[in-house]
Structures are given as structure tokens and as C-alpha cells.
Design a protein that fits this description.
By secondary structure, the protein is an all-alpha fold. It has a single domain, classed as Four Helix Bundle (Hemerythrin (Met), subunit A) (Up-down Bundle). It is built from five helices and two strands, in the order H-H-H-H-E-E-H. Helix 1 packs antiparallel against helix 3 and helix 2 runs antiparallel to helix 5. The protein is elongated and about 50 Å long.
Amino acid sequence: MNPLPPYKFGAARTMVYLHGQYLQAFLAVWQQAQAAGLALPETDDPSYVSLETLLHHVMGAARRYMVWMCSQLDLPDPAIKPAPPPEVIEGEAGGYLAHLIERWELPLAEVEEERFARPEYPSNWGTRYCVEAMLEHAVMHAILHRVQLEELLAEQRPD
């Protein structure tokens, strides 16, 4: 990842950097899970139908988080392409991840610190977040799913 430009709010810069790092870590574990033929547990969650739908979920959410933050801050659309569909995402994941990381780098750089904390806005799923909390949520989302895959891999590994 290229070094990020200076940001008016250093914590936002750090979170954007971490988001890219944790997405890369998620993809590496996802690839291990795919190579191992990992079986996901049965659930009603459509994001867990397959490893491909899970990858699509994580990559698509990363896009939607930045689009939401830009919308709340009245910033231009960040021009992040939609995530590739589950049928082709495995082959396109590396290129799409590079695109995500690149498109995440600049939109928040000129935003003043005070705009990150107030006010709160409804998320796409109804929970209210300030922009800083959504940024933190975005970072944690990739970590959450990486850890879930790591635990499943450990459980399904033969002794």
C-alpha cells in the first residue's frame, strides 16, 4: 500500500490505513479457507451461503461504508466500483481489493476532525452512527470476518 497523504484528522488517516491492511488480511485468510475447502456453518444469513458470498459481502460492505460516509459529509461520490458478483469474485478479488484501497485513500483527507464526531446519521441498516464510528465499524468488519474464518479453519483442520 502506498503511503497515505496527510489528513486533517490523523485518526481518520490511521483508520483508513488499518482498513486496507485488515481487508488484505481477510482476503489472505479467505484464500486459505477456499484452498482448504472450508465448509461454512448452516445459517439463514445470505452472506454465508458460500465462501464466495462471504467475500462479496465483505468487499461490498467496504464500498458501501465509504459511499455512506461521503454522502453524510456531502463529499463527492468516491467512485468505487461495485464488488464483483459471487460467481466471479474469486478471480477478481485481488484487483478489486487494490481498487478499494486506492479509492478509500483520499475522500476523507480534507475533512476537519469535528465533522467526524457530530452529528449522528442513520446507517443503511438503521443504527445511528457518527462518521468516526462508521469508520471504526468498517475497520472492525474485516477483522470480524477474518477471525470467524480462522476459527472455522482451526475447527475443521484434522488433528
